[in-house]
Amino acid sequence: MATEGPGAVRVEVLAQRLGVTRGGFYRQFGGRAELVDAMLDAWEHRSIDDVRRRVEAEGGDAAGKARKAGMLTFAPDLLPIDLAVREWARRDAAVAARLRRVDNRRMDYLRELISTMSGDAGDVEARAMLAFSLVIGDHLIAADRFVGGRARVLRDATRLILG
Predict the structure, then answer these.
(1) CATH 4.10.1110 for the 37-162 domain, yes or no
(2) Recorded GO terms, molecular function (predicted)?
(3) Is CB count within 10 Å lower at the N or C end of the chain?
């Protein structure tokens, strides 16, 4: 799905790639909807639960945890899947609902971390939104001319948001 998009999530295509018959596929998954749910469950688990578990195990201050969560969430192995799910969600209401749930969980974690740095609810909300927008938007912005380079601008923006 990450390389070919949601169109690759078709029973015929998947059965052929797995070297099984359509009947064999349907014995494993009741249908395409069940497969999609299983795929989205795995994505949600990897991109939320696994990331949070790793961040908390490594410890550190709240700003460091937020930075680490962003790096892990959008690491090279997860980023293509995340972008594919976002594109798919534009055309599929069930996928959009799952994406909303995942993004809400991500925002909740950011709020939790940022609230240890600020007691102002409005500040927490704004900083969480800016931090999340930065990591999502970075992968969608094609501009390539940044004073000091893109990596430096991202570091500076993160510092402004998280301290």
Answers:
(1) no
(2) DNA binding
(3) C
Please report the pLDDT score of residue 35 as a whole number.
78
- What is the predicted pLDDT for the residue at 38? 83
Q: Nearest Cα to 43, choosing from 16, 90, 15, 6? A: 6
Listed in sequence order, the DSSP H helices in the chain are 11-18, 22-28, 32-44, 51-58, 62-73, 79-89, 93-114, 121-138, 150-162
Say whether pTM exceeds 0.85.
no
Res 115: pLDDT: 98
Cα distance between residue 150 and residue 80, in whole Å: 20
Closest alpha carbon to 128 in 108, 110, 105 = 110
Ranges of the chain with pLDDT below 50: none
Q: How far apart, in whole angstroms, are the C-alpha atoms of residue 29 and residue 36?
A: 10
What does the DSSP 8-state code read for residue 49? I
